[in-house]
Amino acid sequence: MYAVLVTAQIELGREAEGEGRLHSEVVPAVRQVPGVVAAYWLEPVNGEGFSIVVFEDEQSARAAAERIGDIPRPDFVSLGEPDLRRVVANV
Fold this sequence. Notes:
2 helices, globular, five-stranded antiparallel beta sheet, about 30% helix, 5 strands, alpha+beta
């Protein structure tokens, strides 16, 4: 398995709005991405949040990482460069 990690900068004061859009737009879009095993979005602290999306294989993870810019997001959220990592253990 492989994971794609992405940091998100969320405009301060708009975290609740961002979370609402996450649930209504981003999560449904990510569910449709081929090879997704699981996905997690961590609560932002001081405007910085994290997402971790786990894929069945490296090819699926690389393909998704290349399309990060295509995932819908509000204008008050900016994404960092995706970081691809091999999952070495899980429970």
